[in-house]
Amino acid sequence: MKIKLCSVIVALVLPVLLASCGKEWLEVRPVDSVDQYSLANAEGINALLIGAYSMLDGVTSVSFIDWGGASSNWLYGDIRGLIANKGTDAGDSWEGQAILYYAENALNSMLNTKWKSEYEAISRCNSAIMVTNQALEDGTVTNEQADLFLKQARALRGWYHFEAWRMWAMIPYIDENTDQNLISNAEDIREKIIADLQEGTDLPDNMDAIGRFNGTVSKVLLAKAMMQMKSDYTGALPLLADVKASGTKPDGSPIGLAPTYGEIFDIVNRNGIETVYTVQYSVNDGSAGWNGGYGEVLNFPYKSGASPAGCCGFFQPTQEYVNSFRTSGGLPLPDNSYNLDPVESDQGLRPSDPFTEDTGPLDPRLDWSVGRRGIPYWDWGLHTGSDWVRDQTYAGPYSPKKQVYKKSQEGIFTEVSSWSSGFTANGYRMIRYADVLLLLAECQIETGDLAGALENINAVRARAANPDGFVMEADGITPAANYIISQYPSFPDAGYARNALRMERKLELGMEGHRWFDLNRWGNTIEELNRILDYEKTTPWGTSMYYWAAVGPEDVTYPIPQQQIDLSGGRLKQNR
Amino acid sequence: MILSSKQPVLHVYYNARCIFFIFLALTFRPCINAQTDTGTSRDSLGLILPPETVTDGYVSGDKTDIKGSVSSVLPSMLKAYPSGNLSNLLQGRASGVTVTGSGQPGEIQKVRIRGYSSFLYNDPLYIVDGIPSRDISFLNPADVESLSVLKDAGTSTVYGSRASNGVIIITTNRGEKGFSVNYDMTLGVQSPGKGTRDDVLTAKEYADLQWLVYKNDGTVETHPIYGDSWNPAPSMPFWAANTDWYDEITDPAVIMNHNLVISGGTENARFYAGFGVINQNGIVIHTHNTKYNARINSDFTFLHGRIKAGESFSFSNRNALNVPNLSEESPVHIGPYRSQAIIPVIMTRAVNGINNHDFVPGEWGGTGIAFRLGGTPNPVADLTRNKDSYFIDNRLTGNLYFDINIIDGLDLRSIFGGTVDAVQENIITNPTYERDYDNIAERRVTEINSHNDSWVWTNTLTFEKKFGGHKILALAGYEALKYDIGNAVVNTDTSYYTETRMLSSFLKADYSFMDRYLLGVTLRRDGCSRFSESQRFAYFPSFSAGWHLSNEPFMERLSRISDLKIRGSWGKTGNQFAISSRYSSYIFGADIGGSYYDLYGTFNSSALGYYPMQTGNPNIKWEESFITDVGLDAGLFSNRIRIIFDWYSKKSADLLYNPPVAGTAGQASPPFVNIGSMKNTGIDIEMSYQDKWGDLGFSGTLIFTKFKNEITGISESVKYFESGSFEIGSIVRNQKGEPLSSFFGFEVAGIFKNISDVENSADQDDAQPGLLKFENQDTLTSVYWLWVQERYKRKNFIDYRDKTFIGNPTPDFTYGLDLMLSWKSFDVACFFYGSQGNEIFNYNKWYTDFWPSYQGQKSKSLLYDSWTASKTDATVPRATNHSGLSSNGVVCSYYIEDGSYLRLKSLQLGYSLRADLLNRIRIKSLRVYLQAVNLFTLTKYSGLDPEIGGSDLASGIDYGNYPNVKQFLFGINLSL
């Protein structure tokens, strides 16, 4: 009986004991996470802003936005602009191939990646803005601190929108107040982009960190946006002139033309005098390559023999681009007649077969922009031809070069922990001083100042002509090819100057992601690219590579990713 | 209960009127024993009589009172062949249960009960001796006394928010009075089979194929290996090998299993001690799974049985080396499908490689020997080098209980138990030199140490009473539990798990009248810390009823029907495992590769940055399933034939899904919302027949499982979402109105025969003779379209709108057939398992049937059966170095194959030694047997094995599947 009683007591008491601690007992906060309230202070906002800056390379590991989002625009600017083809072999990245032959459709996942990249970046800017406002309300930051944060965030937001605009034109503008259920791409958002970039122009020039946006950077970006979106050369000109006169890097150090051309692309000079803004890549920092130019990781010679390590053999320059370096009297050939005297290549030859190099006059910038047989390739020795190329029969004989690291830099400026050493610290030179001069010259031509334009273009050419900057044979004194380059004596008329300017941008800035956007700005995308296609199809590899390619009126934008249209519930409209 | 020789087996057999038919398959054998009266020999098989009670883990009841749907599996079936994992042995043994998995030793098979009821989590809940678990790989099948699958709401609702995917109740053996020793041993070998030898090219054939491509494409070049393309035939390099890579990565492998059980005791103290070891080497070299188990269960009674107390403790140590399965990185993909035969496994000649590595004889061969050997690593070299990687799982599970009989019929039971699970993993990667690129420079070791613990404390009051014709069984319980207590340390980085706590109470009442009319009701209230306060508690009710027709007087005239019961149940269950406690909060994250930036231009470091990681939803709640079940149990001809039939409908609602939001919202994980819904309807049938003719005994059991799954809703804005992403895009589209994991792509109409075929077909990107022609799914007959064609002379064209559903990996039905024959001292048992109507997406073909899909291995059919100008009726597209929509660029039905199969999973021939002889040397029984596992598989599928698992959202895609292979075994069962 005693036991019975005990048992009954136990039976009755146990549940009560358990129930009494119920409510609090079930309250478990997630560990290892941070909410917006814990970030509403200077340190937290700065970290959110860094998160926004980190999207400048266009890639991020957290949602696996890879090369499709690369801000260096090798795919959307240069391959689309026929400076290079997709490269590698036929089976590799069919979707990249579609962009090359103007057959991409709204389902192309590369485009979707790019879209996601831009708007992820914008959402990070908006998070920073929202949390700054929260912190202002809480009084955890001063007005001055908040002002600097907000201006950076808005300049970044303007830039990311501009990137999206020049891809798709019809894009929604998203700020911290946007209701995602009400987005639309019907309205003209160019003024909003300009207003955001304008905010950044008030930033001081010395931001104490090379990786931030400052006044100078914001001015260049604003000028670019005004030229691209509104052909507003009058508005852009003073901004660029101002930058030329007194601009600095974000850490306050001076900007100007680097003395020689090739040095610009050496990793050690990524923050050299030439670069107004470089996207700051880092390697061996624990990110397993994600901060080391993930967007360009495919664009190295196909690793074999003595060729540079790295991977994949994408981004092979086109014959037409190579030909355009042909000079006559030190100047580029007018009317694209350079294609009548194409640069000799080793197409179809084995490395062991004899090959006679091209002896005609060439702009020396060719051999810093393109890897080709017989020419020294950084410190990797001579480019030996087809063994550096994944499939010559498919994509031709050329290799990319500007972003490739030196042999002596392997392991120091390249990632050692990942599947490729093509993750490098060779940050994308987003704004170069020569780009600024050429943009300025473009404004001058369009506003009638041909003399000013001549001066700026010739400054760029004079630097290219510096023989100290020629690619030299192993002896260090013999130029690797017949380099002949000179300055323009004069610009007889605006048409001539315009032609010269456009050619100069191709020669100076090729393989740096600008070409297709430039053509769109000038309005000659369709005829220029069809002309190049007609030529490129005559190469031994061109027939199969460009078989279906033709540029139509719709090809001045990319289609808006179908997935995004679907996800918006039809609020976004296709741009074509 | 181990059958002892003196037990009146026949009596037991004939009295087992109301037991589920599945048990009868084996009860027949005791019956023969009784007949032949040799008594002991077959007893030593470890035959276990079906229990006359069933348990839902909290309370045991008379089996006749079951109104819901429960499948019980005989323990002997769970020992049908040696396996490192119990789940493997469940395949085809219980209706409504679908099990798929690869042949990798120790692999945890995918167990699905009655289809799918969630997008995120579909594993059943396991209750082992009262302790909940989501994984039973630690169990030794030899220790299992009973296994029951609770399938309907009537039986499973008592587990409330964890029961939606079904509940599997496992109890382990307890000691019996007396003393007994049993020892079982199995020894055998597994054969890798011929692999892909007859499907892929030899070195010479590969060269011929290259020449065919040149010819088809009109390409002129100098091939770095085979010479000038203008030569009439390719030349072979001096170092050429002719490697059968499948053969190289596999070897016959031994399998060994020992179990020793000692049990015994007195009236008031009993113990069971089981020790087991299974050592299974995989057919892929160096893969293995070794598991040691020790279990002690003891029970004590005090005060004339008024108080019972006891414990269960089990320790398992599992040591395994596995390879990735269903992965493009896996040696079972790279070996059979992607490595060119010309590459030597080990160099026999000196070759100057292309990476400044000069190969000498004895070194590993690889793609670095010459250009164009494809990008694959040498899988033999990698497997051999990395063989010292390991995975060790130490798990201690146990419980303590006491049971007080307060007054007659009223029992208080308290049980406290838990699990301590520690996993240690070392992943070693060694330097390589033989690859053409991506050589690994440094030895890398990743060390992972993790532990994940849980505990549960359950208190129940049970009341049982019979009076007049009434019978009442009632249960009230209270339970507290915690799981996911632990952390994971990867090298030096520690991450902590967010633990989950639950607090629950439950009530259950069963009533029966005259053993004819049965009623039951269950209610559980769960509180769970994974939900925010507003959604924290939920109720899960169920109702069930049964009518035992055969106990009605009017049935007595129908003497052929020995047993008949109609039953039905309805109820609600939940699924809490689909959600994480994080889903309710708005969270920022910091990720070095995702949000850090080298703000100061250091080149080799980056500054901390945050990114929006997760958009929270504080209103998140439980997933729910509503299950309706109608069933029939029947026994005919004195129960020689037994049938259990169930029809069910399971409607799952409030399924968690995070509808993708437009990219403009950023990449923060979109909030999970309870928005999806899914429906499964199906039938489960279990039938058995058994009889005897003199010395000859026969029994047969058929298990039949059929269900139809349909996604009935995803969200308002989203009609579908994709999964299974590959180089050719997403293979799977999960769409409203379709079953989960449906393959979606272009339907292949054929191969373009010639130019005029191209011109007369709908416009299709890069259409060429010899390439794939897709079906136009647009409605060509619509008046509008006809008008458009007429007016604009516009041909129809193929674009993404022409994609359609091209297959589904879920079988129409699966079945298991168990046949046993015994004659005197011999017994023969065979077990067939089959799956009908499942389709497989054979992604291996992307590599082998299309020339430009990497320069890896290719199929014989590409060389011999592909389209050429003179072979326009070919079924394989032209061998061409061209990629695109019409070639290898998109998901299409070219890859779909019928995956139906019928497999003889086990064939066993046993002989029991004469008991009278054995008794002289004090042996109770001794049986020896020979067994073949997976002796044959009838299938049209061209890959290594049609049994292909994969995640629920993208299953049935073959891209390197560790095959289930033949095993030949010898075994001994010994009883002292």
Notes on the protein architecture:
The complex is a heterodimer of chains A (576) and B (976). By secondary structure, chain A is mostly helical. Chain A has 21 helices and eight strands. Chain A has helices spanning 2-20, 22-25, 36-39, 42-53, 74-79, 94-100, 109-138, 143-168, 190-201, 215-230, 233-246, 319-323, 366-369, 392-395, 433-446, 450-464, 494-509, 515-522, 525-536, 542-545, 562-567, and strands spanning 84-87, 275-278, 314-317, 327-328, 331-332, 370-371, 399-400, 429-432. Chain A has a two-stranded antiparallel sheet with strand order 1-3. In chain A, strands 2-8 form a two-stranded antiparallel sheet. A two-stranded antiparallel sheet of chain A has the order 4-5. In chain A, strand 4 (327-328) and strand 5 (331-332) form a beta hairpin. In chain A, helix 4 runs parallel beside helix 8 (143-168), helix 7 runs antiparallel to helix 8 (143-168) and helix 10 runs antiparallel to helix 11 (233-246). The model of chain A has no long low-confidence stretch (mean pLDDT 92). Chain B has 976 residues and is mainly β. In chain B, 11% of the residues lie in helices and 44% in strands. In chain B, the strands form eleven sheets. Chain B has a 22-stranded antiparallel barrel. Chain B has a five-stranded mixed sheet with strand order 3-8-9-6-7. Chain B has a four-stranded antiparallel sheet with strand order 34-35-36-39, with no helix packed on it. In chain B, a hairpin with a 4-residue loop joins strand 30 and strand 31. Chain B is globular. The two termini of chain B are 16 Å apart. The relative contact order of chain B is 0.14. Classes of the chains: A mainly alpha (576), B mainly beta (976). Chains A and B meet through helix 1, helix 4, helix 7, helix 14 and helix 21 of A and strand 19, strand 21, strand 24, strand 28 and helix 10 of B.
